[in-house]
Amino acid sequence: MLTSLYVEGRSWFHRVPVRAKLVALLLASIALFATDSPLPLLAAFLLAGGLYLSLGLTLRQAFARVGFVFFTILVLAAVNLFLIPLPQVLALALRLTALVLLAAAVTATTTIGAFMDEVTVLLKPFERLGLVRAADVSLALGLVLRFVPDIFARYQAISEAHRARGLPVRPLTIIGPLIILTLKDADTIAAAIDARGFRRQ
Amino acid sequence: MDIRFTDCSVSFGERVALHPVTLALDERRIGIIGLNGSGKTTFARLINGLVKPSTGHVKVNGLDTVADGRAVLAEAGFIFQNPQHQLIMPIVADDIAFGLKNRGLPVHEISSRTEAVLARFGVSHLARRRVHELSGGETQLVAMASVVVTGPKILILDEPTNQLDLRNRRMVADTIEALEEDTIVITHDLGLVEGVERLLLFHEGRLIADGKPDETVRCYHEVAGC
C-alpha cells in the first residue's frame, strides 16, 4: 500500500518528477509486454532490481516490501510450468517481477500528496471534457489510502468482540457490523470534508 | 466573535433537536455543556453551517450560515468529536495541506503555512507520520492544526478531551487555552470550561442556563441530579 511504502530519501530517483516516473512506468509496462524473449526481459529485471536497490533500502526491507508479490508470481510460474514451455514461463516471471520492482521503486519515492496532486493534474483534460472531477478522484484515492487501516482495525476489533462473547469468528457475521459502522462514520467524514472547505474555490 | 441566533430551531423529521433559541454570542471564550443528546452539538453545528436551521437564521460575523455557507466555513472552523474522522489524508503534513489546497493557494505558501502551524502546535516531528498511527493526544493536536491553518477567526471544538488520558487531556487543554482564535468548547469536562467568559447549558433541546461558569455548572448539577 502506498501509505506504508514511501521511504524518506535523497536518491536520484526521489528527485525525478512524479509525472516522469509515472510515464516511465507506463512505457516500461508496454515495452515489457512487447517481447517474449527471456534475455531482454532478464536485462529489464536486473535494471529494475538495480534501481529498486539504489533507493537506500536494506536488502531485508527491500524484500519485505515485494516478497509476497514475488511469492505469488512464483506460484503462478510453477503452475504455468505444466501448461507452457519453460522459456515462456521464464519470460512471464521475469516480466512480472521487473514490473513489480519498477512500481515498488515509484511508490517508494513518491509521497501520497505528490501522487494525488499529479493525478489531479493528469485528469484535468478529462475534467474539461466534463467526464470527471479531477479533485474528486484525487480525494477518493486519498480517502481509500487513509481509511483502509481504520477499516482493518475495526475488523479486528469486531473479531475480538466476537471472541470475548464466545461467538465463532466468521467473516460473514463480521461484515454486517463492519459495513454499518463504516457507513455511520462516512457521514461524519463527509461533514468533515465539507467543514474543511472542499470545493470552496 | 459576533454570532447571532434569531428564533433558530432544528428538527429532524418529527424529532425536535433544538427548540427555538434567540441569543447573541460576542465573548472570546464560550463553553457549552449538557447531558448526552441535549442539543449542544446541534447548536454548535449551526454556527458553521454543518446543520441548517429548520426555522430562523444564524449569522456569524455578519454572514448568514445558509446564504453565505462557504464564507461561514472560512470564518468558523469545526473540530469534530472524533478527530480521527476529521483527518482525511493518510499523512499528517498532507492532511494539514488539504484545507489550503482547497483554497487554491500556491505550493510555496501551502508548504510554509503547513510548517508554521505544525510548529505552533508542537507537532513538527509528526509531519511525515501516518495519521492512523498517532496517539489520541497527537491526533487531537493535528486535528486542531489542520483547522487553524486555514485561518478561521472562530474555533468550535466538540468534546476535545473526550477519550484522552490525564496527560494528553492537560496538553490539549493548555493548547486550547493558548489559542489566539475565539473559541466555543462543547464538553462534558467541566475543568475545561472553568475559565470561559460565558457558559451555556442545554437540556432536552432547550437552552436552560446562560451565564458565568459557576452559576451554569450549579444548574447542570441540578439537571443531572448529582
How would you explain this protein's 3D organization?
Chain A has 201 residues and is mainly α. Chain A has 9 helices and no strands. The longest helix of chain A is centred in the last third of the chain and has 31 residues. The mean pLDDT of chain A is 87. Chain B has one domain: 3-Layer(aba) Sandwich (Rossmann fold). Chain B has 226 residues and is an alpha/beta fold. In chain B, strand 9 and strand 10 form a beta hairpin. The two termini of chain B are 33 Å apart. Chain B is globular. A 6-stranded mixed sheet of chain B has the order 6-7-8-3-9-10, sandwiched between helices. At the A-B interface, helix 1, helix 7, helix 8 and helix 9 of A face helix 2, helix 3 and helix 4 of B. Chain B: Keywords: ATP-binding, Nucleotide-binding, Transport. Chain B: It comes from Sinorhizobium saheli. Chain B: Belongs to the ABC transporter superfamily. Chain B: This is Cobalt ABC transporter ATP-binding protein. Chain B: InterPro entries: AAA+_ATPase, ABC_transporter-like_ATP-bd, ABC_transpr_CbiO/EcfA_su, ECF_ABC_transporter_ATP-bd, P-loop_NTPase.
